[in-house]
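Weekly structure sync, notes
Attendees: PL (lead), two postdocs, one rotation student
Agenda item 3: pending single-chain targets
PL asked that the sequence for the first pending target be pasted directly into the notes so everyone works from the same version. It is reproduced below exactly as submitted, 152 residues in total.
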Amino acid sequence: MSDPKKIDRADIVNALWPMDGPHTAESVIAAADTIEDLWRYLAHATRRSDSGALAAPADVYVSLSRLVTSVRSAEQVFSQLARWADRLQNKTRLAHDGERSGDHWLAINAAAEAAGWLSKARAVTELLGRNLDQANSSLSHLYIDADEEEDQ
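Predicted structure, written out during the meeting:
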């Protein structure tokens, strides 16, 4: 933190979730919960275009740039979770709550299905990232002309 009076939100995130870990189920779930809360915050902050939260195209450009980066990270997460679900099929003790007979084909099929859906989510997220990148490219050329604004 450069200014002790100003909270650097990135420092807080890095303090709570250091990139090099430790990575636990609790910390991963807490990170996912926080991402959910932040998306809700953005939904509220962008609800009205006249709120002044993002008055200039440059503000939207910078915000969208960060979202593009986060979507790329989400794409990586979905890809890694798909591989995890794919490997899960090889667990000999994998069980499904709808199968009590000891035959674990239902569990294997559910893991395969999850891997497939996660792979599709990764592909859709990749497309989302490309679309956001194109939108951001268009926004990069926009600004509010101060002289024009004063004339109105």
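Discussion points:
- Residues 56 and 144 are 7 Å apart (CA to CA).
- The chain has a mean pLDDT of 91.
Action: rotation student to compare against the earlier draft before next sync.
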